[in-house]
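Please check this protein record:
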Amino acid sequence: MTEGDATLDLSAMPAVVFTDPQVDTAGLTEAEALAQGFSVESRVLDLENVPRALVNFDTSGFIKMVAERDSGRLLGVQAVAGELIQAAVMSLRARMTVQAIGDALFPCLTMVEGLKLCAQTFTKDVTQLSCCAG
C-alpha cells in the first residue's frame, strides 16, 4: 500500500441502501456528470415496464441511466429496484454504451432485464414492446 504503482478505481463502486424497496447506485448521477463537464442524456424506466416487477406485483420503483450524449457511453445507474446494480457496475467498468446494453441478451423475467429495457428507452418506446420483444 505504500510502494509500487497499484491504483484503486472506485468510479464504478456500487452503493446499496437496504431499505424496502432497495436503493442502488453506481457511477455518476446526472448532476455529478454535468458538474464534471459531461454532456449527458438520461432516461428513467418505471418498474411497471419490467416484466419481473409485474409478476412480483411490486412495481414501485424505477431505473435511471445516465449516458454521455455523443458516445452513448454509460456513466451511471441509479435504481429503486433490487438485485441489479452489479450488472450495472460491470457495464460501467466495461465502458459499454446504452446501445450495447440494449442489444445484449438478458434473461427474461429477472429484475436485471430492467437494465436492458432502460437502455432501450434511449432509442425505443419500450411501453409498446411485448414482454418478449426486447
